[in-house]
Amino acid sequence: MLLADPQQLRAAVPPGRRIMGLDVGTKTIGLALSDTRLIIASPLETIRRRRFAEDIAALFALIDRHEIAGLVIGLPLSLAGGDSPRTQSVRQFARNLLGLRDMPVALWDERMSTAAVTREMIAHDMTRKRRAEIVDRVAAAYILQGFLDAMDRREPIT
Hints:
alpha/beta; six-stranded mixed sheet
């Protein structure tokens, strides 16, 4: 089920279960995990994209292994806040995923997440090679952390 806001996902996740964050790109899918208290996001790994069936099999194996109860998928809106071809692709990925496994899924604005984490890695003198190895999973953690922070807010998200 596709959910509209963070509080709906919080209500759908049983106590003690985790949420997984996804940064879905054309070549990779960065993954991150929440803790069981839904407070902290941590980078997990990166799936190299192949065919959808292979990508989803790898994703579902990780979902099962970590007992994931919900997903947060980064939605790459345009800088103006509208849809783009990339946004439509991510929405289709979410619909295809939900066609194979019904679980709580929320889409979350991820504008500039990769740029933000790349700036931080550069500021910490990380090599270009190391940045390339981890940027997608760190971006997924950045997206998931923003979502977790919003889940704790009591005011409505607009």
